[in-house]
Amino acid sequence: MDNILEAKDVQIERKHFHVEFRENERGKFLRITEEAHGRRNTIIVPGTGVGEFTAAIGAVVAGIERAPLSS
Hints:
By secondary structure, the protein is an alpha+beta fold. The chain has one helix at residues 50-66; strands at 3-12, 15-24, 27-36, 39-46. A four-stranded antiparallel β-sheet has the order 1-2-3-4, with no helix packed on it. The longest helix has 17 residues, at 50-66. The N and C termini lie far apart (51 Å).
C-alpha cells in the first residue's frame, strides 16, 4: 500500500496532471499522472532521482527561455 506524502493537481488546457510524492515498502518516489481525452499515462521517478529529474526539467525550461524566437 502506498502512502501519499504530498500531492498537487494541475489543470493545463485539456490535460489534468496529478503530481504525488509517495512512499511504500520499497521506498519513496514521485508519481506524475497525465489524464487527457479518457487516457492516462504515468511516470514514476525513484526518490533518489527526484533532484536530478527536476534539475533536468529546469535546464530544459531555462534553455527554452534563452532561445531566440523563431519567425
